[in-house]
Specification:
By secondary structure, the chain is of the alpha+beta class. The protein is built from seven helices and seven strands, in the order βββααββββααααα. The protein has a seven-stranded mixed beta sheet, sandwiched between helices. It is a multi-pass membrane protein.
Length: 303
Amino acid sequence: MRKYEIEYGKIVETFSDSAPILLFSNPTADEQRFLIQKLNIDEHTLASALDPEELPRLEFEPDHAAIIFKRPKNYSGKDQLEFKVASMGLFVYEERLVIVISEDIPLFIGKRFLNVTGLHDIFLKLIYNSISHYVEHLRVINMISEEIEDKMSESLDNKYLLNLFSLEKSLVYYANAISSNGFVFEKLRNLSSRIGLEENSREMLDDIIVENAQCQRQAEINSNVLASLIGARANIVSNNLNVLIKHLNAVTIWLMMPTFVVSAFSMNVRIPMAEHPNAFWMIMGLAVISVWLIITYWKHRNW
């Protein structure tokens, strides 16, 4: 648990028991009991804020409003190009804001938090930041997919195709999470009076809804494009394999003809040129001519 307060428009950490902002990162069992018993947070709602599979929703309790929404999880190398989503819980009281997340990450960063006016402003900016985080991840996914596509045109390795499948899976999860968030934001706008949002906060909420809709559209477009590219790239990999097999077959046939020539002159019977002093070079010349004839014939047939 960390405590924060607002000083001169900035969020600063404090140790005061009356701090208006409480942040719980992966709360322990004791901290969860504190949230349930002291702050009257529903146990199921608290579990939802820590469950990445939980659907976003907006609920009203007698003394607070509970907002559960999906945010992009911080990416790490061990995820192997799979971008995941996590849940965040915002519990808005009249004079207190409680934030519950499943991982310890910096929240109050960026230019949006350089000047805050109140608790409503803070939780709306947290939502706004999560949308910006989605947009950044979508841009990164697009860059990674383009890099993988370039590598696939030169390689037959299946790992690149599997990487594209992981990115497509991530985009599907992102599009679903962003869409679910949109329903919560719409409901929040319709019930803004119950939370006590002022005019400027409602205007920010309208901007959030527009940005979220654009982000959802971008995720859906990227997902559709990537799905189409996966099929096309799979065909390219198959075609590259066919070309490789064709080249290997050509080399095999080129080796068969000189082998046949040499084998014919190596049988244990009397053959022409057996006593000729330059028989070896004549046989080698016939072998080379046979390869040249095959190559010429293939070029003539455009094989």
